[in-house]
Amino acid sequence: MPTYRHPGTVITDHSFRVPLDHANPAGEQIEVYAREVVAVGKAHESLPWLLFLQGGPGGRSPRPVGRDSWLGRALDDYRVLLLDQRGTGRSTPANRQTLPLRGDATAQARYLAHLRADSIVRDCELIRRELLGEDGRWSLLGQSYGGFCTLTYLSYAPEGVREAFVTGGLPGLRSSAHEVYRSAYPRVQRKVEAHYARYPEDVETVRAVVRHLREREVRLPGGGLLTAEAFQAIGTTLGTGNGTHTLHYLLEDAFLPGVPAGHLSDSFLAEVQGHLSYASRPLYALLHESIYGQRSVTPGATGWAAETVRAEFPQFDADGALADDRPVLLTGEMIYPWMFASDPALAPLRETAELLARREEWPDLYDPQQLARNEVPVVAAVYHDDMYVDTDDSLATARSVRGLRPWITNEYEHDGLRVSEGRVLDRLIRLVRGEI
Q1: Alpha-carbon distance 316 to 425, whole Å?
Q2: Predicted confidence (pLDDT) at residue 1 exceeds the cutoff of 90
Q3: Catalytic residue among 386, 390, 393, 415
Q4: How many Cα atoms occupy the beta-carbon half-sphere of 391 within 13 Å?
Q5: Per-residue pLDDT tens for 362-400?
Q6: Is-catalytic flag, 420?
Q7: Fewest 10 Å CB contacts: which of 50, 118, 128, 214?
Q8: Rounded to whole angstroms, how far apart are CA atoms 176 and 161?
Q9: Does 275 participate in catalysis according to the annotation?
């Protein structure tokens, strides 16, 4: 286990072998990586463990340098384990380069079905027993999708949990993928309209970019096709604290002054690619709708729910907006089938994605009865009008989990844990301890 030092921290690498299919522990094994972080001077102390579950799906754990962000507050009290959830980071990877080695699209989809929260939690339980012993319990910190995993953990393995903190990640326990997107589109529209109210000049810039993309083929530096629909997806940035300003600065560099035909600038295209490419997180696209698949909620396939539900919101049609001289609405955290044609990181996995969208048998991820009798202390930051996670769903879940104490705030957006420099985590720690 390699150990090294960063400013103020001691870091130890861990690697674990776990079954791909926990129902078949003697079958294929994969690797799961985790990074242990402890404050300098506390490396040999008997500290409680805090497992961090990253957002996603498909997001690797943070790569800290010293006591970054919320980690500084956590290290005051805990030994922290940053998990690369299966398929991400330094764990056995799942992407366009590795998945074809498993066989055809059917084999790939079958493999990916083992990368959801239920399997992640079972990985965590094996890791917990190895690091803490059979009777050891650790604390959980779940950000966004990590919060979804935390609710799965409390449903099926609460005996391993000492306390749980959730930030921007209380899922609807009984919400289908179609219901999730049906509530998401109006939230996204509010965020876009608020952006245009702040930066009214961006209305015409976005319209100009969309007209440009309708008139000619535009390729991103990595070869991806930038269509009008792809550009609309840039609206996903608006769910973060500085997202509206990030978008404005991106748009102000869209066109090169003095160049014939109003060419989009290289710098603009490079930045757009950074926001839209799934090269570093293909599982986000492949598994995004599957995280809402549960056999007892909506029997049947998730079926490209974001695309299907979009038809119910014609105000998001870019051509209609141009024709009616309306602002073009951007979209948010939605995955569409055309992304698997336009993004080179996803194109080889197009058939696999289609099979996942048509998959009809997804095990349940939550046990409402177990959560109703929960005995683990749980606190959650619920961000008012969170663009990514529906607030009404979060509050309904908070009421359904016995003993869960929510903190509802409009001080932060969805990324409050990361940008608050430990203030969000500090409040939750004091909340779970009964200090506030």
Answers
A1: 36
A2: no
A3: 386
A4: 15
A5: 999 999 999 999 999 999 999 998 999 999 999 999 999
A6: no
A7: 214
A8: 27
A9: no
Half-sphere exposure of 262 (CA within 13 A, CB side): 10
Phi-psi region of 144 (alpha: psi -120 to 50; beta: other; left: phi over 0): left
Task: Supply the mean pLDDT for the chain.
Answer: 96
Per the residue annotation, which of 61, 119, 139, 144 is the catalytic one? 144
Q: Return phi, psi of residue 143, to 5°.
A: -100, 125
Q: Which of 400, 414, 415, 420 is catalytic?
A: 414
Q: Which amino acid is at 191?
A: K
Residues whose CB is less than 8 angstroms from the CB of residue 388 and which lie 6 or more positions away in sequence, other chains included: 144, 168, 239, 332, 333, 414
Phi/psi region, residue 91 (left: phi>0; alpha: psi -120 to 50; beta: rest), is beta
253 among known catalytic residues: no
**Helix/strand/coil (H/E/C) assignment for every residue in the chain:** CCEEEECCEEEEEEEEEEECCCCCCCCCEEEEEEEEEEECCCCCCCCCEEEEECCCCCCCCCCCCCCCCCHHHHCCCCEEEEEECCECCCCCECCCCCHHHHCCHHHHHHHHCCCCHHHHHHHHHHHHHHHHCCCCCEEEEEECHHHHHHHHHHHHCHHHEEEEEEECCCCCCCCCHHHHHHHHHHHHHHHHHHHHHHCCHHHHHHHHHHHHHHHCCCECCCCCECCHHHHHHHHHHHHCCCHHHHHHHHHCCCECCCCHHHCECHHHHHHHHHHHCCCCCHHHHHHCHHHHCCCCCCCCCCCCHHHHHHCCCHHHCHHHHHHCCCCCCCCCCCCCCCHHHHCCCCHHHHHHHHHHHHCCCCCCCCCHHHHHCCCCCEEEEEECCCCCCCHHHHHHHHHHCCCCEEEEECCCCCCHHHHCCCHHHHHHHHHHCCCC
Taking each helix axis from N to C end, the angle separating 105-112 and 350-358, rounded to the nearest 10 degrees, works out to 60
Statement: residue 231 has pLDDT above 80: yes
Q: Looking at residue 108, what is its pLDDT?
A: 98
Task: Give CA separation, 26 vs 94, 102, 221, in Å.
Answer: 21, 19, 45
Question: Quick count: other Cβ atoms within 10 Å of Cβ 326?
Answer: 13
**How many whole angstroms separate alpha carbon 333 and alpha carbon 168?**
14
Q: How far apart are CA 91 and CA 87, in angstroms?
A: 6
Q: How far apart are CA 90 and CA 84, in angstroms?
A: 7
CB-based contact 266:217 (threshold 8 Å): no
Q: How many angstroms from the chain centroid is the CA of residue 229?
A: 21
